[in-house]
Amino acid sequence: MSRRPVRALTLAVSVAWAELRHDPLRPALLAVRLLPTPVRRALRRLEIRLTARARPSGPSDEPSPARVPAPPGRPILPVPGRVLHLVTHGLPYRQAGHTLRTQALTRAQSAAGLDPHVVTRIGFPAAQGVFDARPLQLLGGVPQHRLLPRWLPYGSGAVLARNAELAARLVERLRPSVLHAAGDHGNGRVALALRETYGLPVVYEVRGFPEESWSAQAHGRSRSDGTYRVRREWETYCMRESDAVLTLGEAMKAEIVSRGVPEERVRVVPHAVDPLFLEPLPDGGAVRTRLGIGPEEYVVGTVSGFTRHEAIATLLESGAELRRRGVPVRLLLVGDGPERTALEYLAGRLGLRDGTALFTGRVPQEQVRDCHAVLDVFAVPRTDRLVTPLEPAEAMASGLPVVASDVPAMRDLVESGVNGRLIPPESSLVWADTLEMLFSSQKTRRTWGAAAQALVARERTWARVAAATRDTYHALGCL
């Protein structure tokens, strides 16, 4: 099938033109972010300055909540069990926790007898600089539909209205029985517009709180900023208006209920793992040798995005403390993100750039277990109070004990003293004490790791999550 490079080019040009109209600094920021990772890292200071000075993308001046107008359409006869997932990005062009979750969930739904389809946000992936404008791709047997006009309109309100129009054509072709929108609010607002036209129930899946992520990453901007308030109101609007809400953990459910959503309409469908993660780990000897890790050295590490709320600095500081105590420890830091340059600088300042702190960058999903095989302990020092991440569940499935910050999001996963240990956030000395204790007791590591693996095998498989979504659809009369 043709990649349609001309259409991909016109979409990319329309995005650049829209950014230029919004703020002349934004095209420069976009250009830096599209550069290869090594080049982008070298220009990190420029990116920080551009981020601080550029106006935030997004319509902070639009009325809130902003209802996307219902597109024109004709009546349809829904196909029982057919699900249309509305998402922002997708594999293979964006590998992140949310895209991996979409793919794993839809494959599990297919195995459970449902008929899932995925549609990405208007313009993806061509608008992100990927010159591929095919309207349909098959990934793991699941159809991935793309909404690719010749030109994107200007302004988020116009973009979402056009998104709804193109999605309406897809709805009339596919005739789904339920619309399953994954946050952010743009997907939820489009799904609600389609419900108005076709009468289809809407399930809104809250995988995070985008306004909180924006607040953490927007340099010099706080929760009092208008953009934060508008995004929060949009998210709350989607939660309240949807027929059912799914989310990842009990802490997130409590937050959603606190925003006025009836508790009986909110269901927890946690992160789950591929069955491969429950199999015995591969031999880590070759990876240890390649990384220069000696057989007598202990390894603590993490797999994550390097953002502020992941608090990787706490792990670096605890590693430096352990080195001062004479503990032979290495830190394996797998991932990338906006904080990487600052973290590498901190590692140097703490005396860890002698190979003690190993920054690998991102690794393909199929290599994550090779990293697990090197670790003695998996660390989650994050400060995010509400959002439960996927990576510790994968590590627990591999039989690793988890040391994590004692925040509500992690209490769904880690039972302190049973399958890991919870520590006050940003307490590097307590982290060092706990890690030293674990390194000195192989029996404790094995006992906690076995309990961690048993928990995941019992409660966090994709088959179980797919069954939970099926039950939700059934309650809405979609099967």
TrEMBL record:
Region listing for Disordered, in residue ranges: 53-74
Glycosyl transferase family domain segment(s): 290-453
Keywords: Glycosyltransferase, Transferase
Stored CDD domains: GT4_WbuB-like
Residue ranges of every copy of the Glycosyltransferase subfamily 4-like N-terminal domain listed in the record: 102-275
Superkingdom as given in the UniProt entry: Bacteria
One family name in Pfam for this protein: Glyco_transf_4
Protein name: Glycosyltransferase family 4 protein
Species this chain originates from: Streptomyces chiangmaiensis
